[in-house]
TrEMBL record:
Species per Swiss-Prot/TrEMBL record: Parvibacter caecicola
SMART domains: AAA
Name of the protein in its database record: ABC transporter ATP-binding protein
Family annotation (Pfam families): ABC_tran
Keyword Nucleus included in the entry's annotation: no
Highest taxon, organism lineage: Bacteria
Domain ABC transporter: 5-233
GO molecular function (one): ATP hydrolysis activity
Protein keywords: ATP-binding, Nucleotide-binding, Transport
Amino acid sequence: MNHLIKIENLEKHYDGFSLAKVNLAVEPGTVVGFIGSNGAGKTTTIKAMLGLIGANGGSIELLGQPVKVNSPIIDQLKSQIGIVLDTCAFPSTLRVKDAGRLGRVAYPQWDGPLFEQLRGQFCLPEGKKISELSRGMGMKLTLAFALAHHPRLLVLDEATAGLDPMARDEVLDILRQFMEQEGHGILMSTHITSDLEKIADKVMCIDEGRIVFDLDKDAISDQAAIGRCRKQDLEAIAASGFFPAGEMRFQSHGFGTDVLVPDRFAFARQFPDVALDRISIEEYMTLVLKGETR
Ligand SMILES: Nc1ncnc2c1ncn2[C@@H]1O[C@H](COP(=O)(O)OP(=O)(O)OP(=O)(O)O)[C@@H](O)[C@H]1O
């Protein structure tokens, strides 16, 4: 199968920060959520992937083509990739309707009626200047622009940040429609992990420039859990050898200790008296990034 995105061993060094051999893949038919704390390396990965900044090592393939910084191949691929970065990409003096004109010039397969439909759906007045749009409206305009040239791949960096909950649901519906078409895929970086609960197939987490987990969402939503432990439960679990040494992750709080349980079924067989709750992506990430280990 041809990957839409295939990054292997990507390295990028800044003063005080490095991307350390990042691997990332997006296959056709999948939505990959890319999460991590502020400054973890999401935007750096995305920019290097799109050839907007140079990399110090590794390989990048977009739609099966090798990519390097400023490579002309990016221009050729541009028509097949919709990009929404975390800022509105249009000059501030432009009006909303001018964005449609730009699209017509930039993309041979530009779909004016689709742009108009999305503009209406997103309540973007055609006469408004870009400088007069709210942050959320700017993101909606960029998304409409990205979708109206019928890309196969969407790359979204914090694209739903700044949108109210109803607008986010609307955008997620549009992304679902986009995914109904064969061969399409999305890479979306976000801090709003509840959006990923609704739409992602895979979730990748980066921390200090390293990928710390790369999982099918079902491995979190269906397979994993939080064990709600008392002190004596924690000791019994630690002593049992259920988790290899150093791989039990937990966080203590006033009411007891939460343990990250990767396989709820195996855990329940061995510790039937420990209460298990479903785990959200956010809780999973917090336990991996902030939990103690034993
Ligand atoms: N042009 C640059 N020069 C030097 N350091 C940079 C540059 N761009 C980013 N960095 C550093 O790289 C690190 C990763 O930043 P990046 O923007 O990739 O994080 P992020 O995961 O997207 O964060 P956020 O969630 O806050 O958007 C940070 O420490 C940042 O300061």
